[in-house]
Write the structure tokens for this entry.
Amino acid sequence: MSDRDDAPVIDVRGLRMRYGQVDVLDGVDLSAGRGEVVALLGPNGAGKTTTIEILEGFRVRSAGEVRVLGEDPARGDERWRARLGVVLQSWRDHGRWRVRELLGHLGRYYTPYSTAERVRPYDVDQLLAMVGLTEHATQRLATLSGGQRRRLDVAIGIVGRPELLFLDEPTAGFDPHARRDFHDLVHRLSDMEDTTILLTTHDLAEAEKLADRILVLAGGRIVADGSAEALSRQVTGRAEVRWSSGGERYVHPTTDATAFVRDLFARGGDDIADLEVRRSTLEDTYMALVHQHETGQTTDAAAAAVIEFSRGRS
Amino acid sequence: MNPGRLAARLGVARGWAEFRHTITDPQTIGYMIFINGIFLLVLFFQRNGTIGDTPVSLAALTLPSLLGLVVATNGLMGVGSVLAVNREDGTLLRAKAIPGGMTGYLVARVVESGLTVALGLVVILLPGLLMVDGLMSGGAAGLALLVFVVALGLLATVPWGAVIGSLASSPQSAFGLCMLPTMGLVSISGIFYPITAMPGWLQGVAQVFPFYWLGLGMRAAFLPDGAVVAELGESWRYLETVGVLGAWAVVGLLIAPTVLRRMARRESGSAVETRRQRAMQRVS
């Protein structure tokens, strides 16, 4: 490998994507280092897929500086392509091919790019075992279940032993067991193979479990960028207190629920009923962030989250 | 091995594998039996009619014309509809995601359509030769002409199939774009019915397109010299055949790479997803 080990695998500055009059991406900055697992979160239509497709070299950006494995994806050649893995959401392609036959065939395209430190492609049987498809090796793709097909998609994505892997909603359609296996596989790829992984997901628990770093894309920009710990740390103190008094219902967000409730009783006395204290979750923070960018109005919680989250990032 | 050559070799392997998948598919086998059954039925009913004053049977005239039709339709539809289907189902995007994958994919399409044409020819020719007398009187020269016409016919049609498959918005529209002009042109191109019986302007239209010339070239390869009296101008018109088919081939080969590149550049996960959503709506 010609790249220095400390050079970022993905380096994006001021990325813009404009469709007609609409800026889908409006100045995105992001980077990922070697072996790092980065989760890209964001509501539907926020531009996650567009971002990934630009990085994959499948879509040409409107403006901005993009380097993936040291090259501009818009000009990436086959040698560059051989270092990437893309997990596609398959549907019904190659229905008549058998699992082992297809993996073997697609793997052979990578043989000219094999190096001493990175032998390409993976051995098919090893790969089948890794994704749990050994017993389905001779089955036709058309007869696989949805979850089995998704596992094959992952296998195809990594058959060339990529240095950088893109996963666009990888676990959609996985049952809990397959999801667990997939998470193990991601950890294995990043730890053992030093593979950099950029994934998109709607599952916050999954992002928390897998990612070294979480990015939130909303309103065409990265609005949060930090480790999962930083995000959890800053939300654990946040809570919502609900109660009723004199037939009316109240909701109050607070960072110190205990003090607030003590104060509430001191003032409200016996009239207070239906008391409920709800700790906010990672999901609440995410929802607040997204809500702010979708509606354009800044709720207190969202503003606080952005500031705290950005602070917690370094 | 050099990556370009490896990709081409893998394309041949892929073309062979997909050809094998196709011909072992019961639906395809059923379709082939049905179509060829119709062809043989036509030959059966035409076996006693003769062309004008010659001893050449009507069936002997139709059989080579059918072979020309097989080359033209497989060249156009084989590549065009498969390409459109593969764009919709994501096969092409997969090819794009691996190094050399696009090269392999396109080589596979050419190999598969070549094999399909060869099979299609053999399937009609074997029973046809048993049923119809007076064919293959040209010997080795006739055989060489057959191979030449098939090759030129593929060159004249495969690139256009690729263009249609790249431009069509769905497999259905690709099928329509290939099928409708094919059916119209076949009916006026002297495949099932002599072109000399057509009004003059329709003869003119038919002679612009490859179907007529493929049929003519095949007849020149298979029929005895006496049968030439049934042709326009009572000539096999070799030069014109090469000229028209060659022109379609040259223009097609000039346009197809640009169209293919443009199509390939636009393939992305979201493009496939959009087509998938549309296909789901068609089904429901």
Q: What stands out?
A: The first helix of chain B runs from residue 3 to 23. Chain B touches chain A at residues 1-3, 6-7, 10, 13-14, 17-18, 21-22, 25, 86, 89-91, 93-94, 96-101, 104, 265, 267-270, 272-273, 276 (CB under 8 Å). Chain B has one domain: 3-283.
